[in-house]
């Protein structure tokens, strides 16, 4: 049994996103932490009620992102992750956007979470906030230093909203490097949040790595069958919302379709 199946209890896990409202230390924080907590817990419970196999907590409301989180952001992200873990009974992950490995690992360790997402792991990319360099070596050393080797790392390859500094590096090369540099799984995305991930890209990555390959954007009830025919799992957020809030009926519809698919092929 793979670590993925052992952790999530299925061979095709669906990880639902909790997109947090703006946190302290950011331009859009409105000063009301109770509202931030209430919205996060509501979304997390809706995801669990709908049947997801895991939840990832991300400081999505902190746009525009910086390279590193402030102390205030990290403290709030850790506290919110811990509260979500207390209110749910599924594996929990952390994404400290945009790819702050120390904050992600520290939050996960403190909140007793199970995995993190690192959007920039082996690639050097250009985004709206400048050049971001690979962090795989530093991330693994820090994970070891804080005695957090139980926390799994899901690493994006050539992640959405960025451009490779060296465009000659193929997606397959990035995926192979991610596996070689210690990622427990890789994530393939489309060009933007909610944008469908090209099946060809997923196939190309799957053909080159032995670790789990997750789809990181654009999975919907309509395309879940074909996407999960190839990928080992998916991270889903935008398509599960109504008016910006997780809709448990949409979650349930997606999960029922996936369960039906698994029963049909199994």
Automatic annotation (TrEMBL):
Pfam families per record: BtpA (PF03437)
Coiled-coil residue spans: none
Domain of life: Bacteria
Protein family per UniProt: Belongs to the BtpA family.
Upper lineage: Bacteria, Bacillati, Bacillota, Clostridia, Lachnospirales
InterPro entries the UniProt entry points to: Aldolase_TIM, BtpA, RibuloseP-bd_barrel
Name of this protein: BtpA/SgcQ family protein
UniProt organism field: Vallitalea guaymasensis
PANTHER family: SGC REGION PROTEIN SGCQ-RELATED, ZGC:162297
